[in-house]
């Protein structure tokens, strides 16, 4: 992973996490997870270990953006698991769009599962329609945004080496 | 210099990843156990990211409705007095029974946590230690109790909302005044609908539908002063097999649509309470009179 890519991802994660927390206080509309596409795109480019580290870092940012997570670190571990999963979906060469969408959907499902698990473990109420809606929105967002992020990062890398 | 074609050794990165995952798990366990370390980490996050949230929330405020536009058009003087919060909502808060005779700091909700799978459990407000907000103080809206401040940074504070798993409030239920406690609807002996709270009373047969639930008041100026509206009894459990008499409670504040809230910063009692003397006269008290004066 090149240094500009790391800085860019970090900036993107912080901005997106802040935007999500601020938007949540403005509207009661169900919102997709905006951080996951960044993690999935990074993991698809850098593999399992890179995906895990990226997910862990992004999850810490999400956990620390006020008001923070109910259990500090739970989000970090969930995003790390998603990064690991998406990193396992890394393929060399040109990847069809369907594969990227499938990896995004799998990561969204894992994130939703982790959310429900944390909620059950801490005794928080779980609304399954809300979780399902959030999963559908996040998977759709991943399918749309991840290819763009991957392309942008590839262009950044090739522009640097050229 | 072109990089060598060989891939770098993956082992150090894997070790780093494993160590970081373990550290994260440790932080989570410490947080669950209530150790002070994670609280400090949260405060650092609030100090660094809280001001950004304040800027984002106030700078890009698009009024969602005509009513919102009317509020935005309120006079500057009122907005200044309300520390930047919207004037009409502030006026409602000032007129609410929760703030009568009590000092409070007005604040706006600037961010909402996402972890609770059914509605928010934590919110961030734009007032912090510099505004006089301390941890373990009650947060109210114009409609009633909202929650308790759990962590504070200089410019923001995080509030645990009513209905969160970790928040239990001692209450008194009208009209009989029976005591009880209100907690998360997902935790009692019976599962409540997502928006409702769980009430456990100390005595059976004293709960009626529609009864008002207010706070009992904490020991030594604890977080919740007495008489704050918590909600109304929505449904009384009739299951005879239940050990604890229970009911579901609809919160009086709309916790999903919070905007302007007040943090009660009243001071604790400092003067001792003078002992009182009964004034009844008559034959009932056989041993009375020994300690009475006059």
Outline of chain B: globular
How large is the radius of gyration of chain B?
25 Å
What is the largest interface, and how many residues per chain?
Answer: A-B, 46 and 60 residues
Number of domains of chain B: 2
Rg calculated over all Cα atoms of chain A:
15 Å
Structural domains of chain A: how many = 1
The proportion of residues forming helix of chain B, as a percent range, comes to 10-25%
Quaternary structure type = heterodimer
- Helix-and-strand structural type of chain A: mainly alpha
Reported for the largest beta sheet of chain A, the result is: none
Unreliable stretches covering 5 or more consecutive residues of chain B: 287-294
User: What is the end-to-end distance of chain B?
Assistant: 102 Å
Order of helices and strands of chain A: HHHHH
Give the number of helices of chain B.
Answer: 5
Question: What secondary-structure arrangement, pairings included, does this model have?
Answer:
The complex is a heterodimer of chains A (162) and B (294).
Chain A: H1 3-26, H2 35-64, H3 74-88, H4 97-122, H5 128-161
Helix pairs in contact in A: 1-2, 2-3, 2-4, 2-5, 3-4, 4-5
Chain B: H1 11-33, H2 36-59, H3 66-72, H4 76-81, H5 87-95, E1 104-112, E2 122-125, E3 138-141, E4 144-152, E5 157-161, E6 169-173, E7 178-183, E8 197-201, E9 212-215, E10 229-236, E11 246-251, E12 260-264
Helix pairs in contact in B: 1-2
């Amino acid at each position: 992973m090149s240094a500009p890519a790391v800085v860019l991802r970090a900036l993107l994660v912080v901005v997106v996490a802040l935007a999500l927390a601020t938007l949540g206080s403005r509207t009661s509309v169900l919102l997709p997870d905006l951080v996951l596409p960044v993690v999935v795109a990074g993991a698809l480019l850098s593999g399992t270990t890179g995906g895990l580290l990226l997910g862990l870092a992004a999850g810490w940012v999400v956990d620390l953006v006020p008001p923070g997570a109910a259990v500090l670190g739970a989000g970090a571990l969930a995003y790390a698991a998603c990064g690991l999963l998406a990193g396992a979906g890394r393929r060399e060469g040109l990847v069809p769009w369907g594969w990227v969408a499938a990896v995004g959907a799998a990561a969204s499902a894992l994130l939703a599962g982790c959310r429900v698990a944390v909620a059950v473990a801490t005794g928080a109420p779980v609304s399954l329609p809300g979780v399902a809606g959030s999963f559908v929105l996040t998977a759709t967002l991943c399918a749309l945004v991840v290819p763009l992020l991957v392309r942008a990062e590839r262009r950044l890398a090739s522009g640097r080496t050229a | 210099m072109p990089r060598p074609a060989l891939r770098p050794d993956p082992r150090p990165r894997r070790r780093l990843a494993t160590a970081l995952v373990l550290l994260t798990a440790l932080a989570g366990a410490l947080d669950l156990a209530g150790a002070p370390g994670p609280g400090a980490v949260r405060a650092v996050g609030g100090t660094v990211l809280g001001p950004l949230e304040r800027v984002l929330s106030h700078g890009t405020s698009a009024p969602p409705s005509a009513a919102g536009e009317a509020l935005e058009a309120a006079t500057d003087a009122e907005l200044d007095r309300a520390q930047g919060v919207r004037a009409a909502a502030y006026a409602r808060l000032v007129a609410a029974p929760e703030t009568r005779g009590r000092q409070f700091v007005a604040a706006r909700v600037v961010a909402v946590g996402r972890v609770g799978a059914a509605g928010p459990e934590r919110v961030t407000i734009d007032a912090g230690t510099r505004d006089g907000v301390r941890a373990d103080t009650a947060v109210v809206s114009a409609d009633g109790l909202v929650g308790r401040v759990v962590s504070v940074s200089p410019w923001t504070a995080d509030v645990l909302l009513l209905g969160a798993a970790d928040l239990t409030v001692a209450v008194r239920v009208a009209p009989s005044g029976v005591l009880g406690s209100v907690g998360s609807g997902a935790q009692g002996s019976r599962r409540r609908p997502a928006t409702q709270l769980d009430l456990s009373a100390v005595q059976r047969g004293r709960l009626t539908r529609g009864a008002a639930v207010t706070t009992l008041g904490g020991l030594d100026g604890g977080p919740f002063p007495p008489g704050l509206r918590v909600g109304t009894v929505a449904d009384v459990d009739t299951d005879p097999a239940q050990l604890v008499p229970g009911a579901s409670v609809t919160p009086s504040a709309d916790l999903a649509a919070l905007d302007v809230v007040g943090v009660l910063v009243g001071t604790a009692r400092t003067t001792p309470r003078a002992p009182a003397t009964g004034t009844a006269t008559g034959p009932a008290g056989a041993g009375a009179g020994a300690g009475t004066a006059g």
